[in-house]
Model the fold of this input.
Amino acid sequence: MTVIRPSTIVWFCIVVAVGYAMFQVKYEVMQQEQTLAGLNKQIIDDREQIRVLNAEWSYLTRPNRIEDLSARFLHLNGISATQILPLSAIPERADAGAPLAASPAAPIIPAAAPHFAAVTSRSQP
Amino acid sequence: MSTSSPRDPNPCRPRHFRPGPCGPEPQEGPAKQWIETSRTRLIIAGALMGLAFVVISGRLVEISGFKAGDAHVAHASAPARVETGRADIVDRNGVLLATTLKAPSLYADPKTMVDARIDMRAAARKIVQVLPDLNDAEVYAKLTSDKSFVWLKRQLTPRQMAAVNALGIPGLDFEDEEKRIYPQGRAFAHVVGYAGVDNKGLAGIERSFDDPLRGRHEPLQLSVDLRVQSILRSEIAKQMTEFRAVGGSGIVMNVNTGEVVALVSLPDFDPNDPGDSPTENLFDRVTLGTYEIGSVFKIFTVAMALDDHVTSLAGGYDASHPIQIDRFTIHDDHAQNRWLSVPEIFMYSSNIGAAKMAVDVGTDRQRDFLGKLGLLKTPNFELPELAAPLVPSAWKPINVMTIGFGHGISVSPLQIATAVSTVANGGTMHRATIIKRPEGELVAGRQVMSEATSIEMRKLLRLVVEKGTGKLAEAPGYVVGGKTGTAEKVSGKHYNTHSLISSFAGVFPVNDPRYFIMISIDEPHGDKQSFGYATGGWVAAPGVSRSVERMASLLGIQPVDEDSPEIRRSLMVGLPSPSGRKFASN
Done:
């Protein structure tokens, strides 16, 4: 009569456990792959949507359309050179509490038609 | 191991220690040798197998333990990008100019429909009801054809697709196709061009970059700026309407890099439906049109004379009498009938003075100089619609004179832009491009004239706007300098005095040139506001003025005070006083 040695039993258990674990991992991976494929498809669909929305955004922000809308609802005018100042023209605040200088900085271009005499007295950047 | 040991009943069963012999073990002779050989071989084979296992386990540990975050592995699981047959085209700020979207196309399988016993006439009628641009008879003919695949309509909208599905006719099916969309419509019609239904580029960038666009994923970035383009286009359109012109063109170029920032040709077309516009609208006036541009050419004549030291800003020519040559008479449009200094010739746009100056420079040097500015051969540019300039075959004395003031040679506005940019930027010629150059890249150029000439030319260009024919181009704060040009168009063998091309080509800010701008109006008609004039100074210059005012802040140009002493000094030109004395212009 053959006696089953304990080592044989141990090995047998290990084989069963490893086999089970392997299939378990395999199914797990298959499931994960399926999820991944689903997510990838979702991402591609979303990217496709983003492309459509980008195209639509570009279409809706056409300068002529914005111009029309602005003229209809905002009543804004184009920016003129008289409204632009160099950074250096903004007076520095002496301390945080003090009020700003009473006279605003002079624009680079005088708002009225520039004339030579008025200009020479003003410092320029 | 003795032969006397008892025979095992199962000699091959596993043993836990010293394996006994499975059979009688030969003591000596060839049999013993064979057994020894076999053992050695077994040991070698076993060692090799063992080694293989060690390698495999080692690799296993390496992959699972040390390479877990490997980009290579991560990449395999990353989602694929949206596959499109054509890359997007964007402007210099990344605004979308052309993109590819999926669009379903409708096809029919007439054989299946026959098998399904469908009333073809009724089916055709229903299809035409939901797709009204199809023709009833044509659809019927297609459905009754003996095929198993016929296209009914390409590239449907999602709504049309739903409507066709709602018909529930078997044998109709869709295939995803790609449709090229131009969200900005007409704004960039001549730059971007368009692609046909099979995604083949047929015009513009779509055509010249057809292969690269198919093979890449990253968008192609152009040097054009949508905002600047839109401003230039609307201002040209405005001038065309006001002066009842047949066409107009314009270009804005960065003088220091050669990048085209805006390129407008009117009338234009909708690239989403190019067949909808007359074919002549497809014509790109800026690159494919060549024109005798008139007095704008005096920029090159004067630059050439100054660079060759044939004359100087203090020099001058007698413009009191028209020139008679062959059967032609050259006279001045703004005749002063006296001796004119070089700055005066330029600011009053004297043909007589320019012609005499050109003669002084001479035939060969004139041809060389214009050649160096790229005016005598087809420019190297990315758009496929490019024209070769029309240059006289034999450069006769009369040609030297007329070319001196811009007649007898036809060049495209693109060439003018490149050449004037060169004159203004310090004399360095840059190749024109419509592809964005990397920020801060050092742009290679060829020095074709001295910097001193360029600085003198800036003064003269400013003088024209300050005191000469181009006063209406002034844009306060942005120091515009430029030259007007009015050319009579050739009709048949003669110049037609009533059909003009009126242009203004300028640079701003001219004290430190950043951008070139040119507007040409084709066949303008003078109106009350322009006192009947249809010249460049009246027709094109106001458009330039308004364009510069609107676009300068977008281009990052800080306004300056033209009347400040530094700028006055840098642009000062000596002009003779009427009595002959010279005084500083102010």
Summary: The interface with chain A takes residues 77, 79-82, 84, 95-97, 99-102, 181, 183-185, 187, 226-227, 230-231, 234, 475-478, 549-550, 552-553, 558-566, 586 of chain B (CB under 8 Å). Chain B has a mean pLDDT of 85.
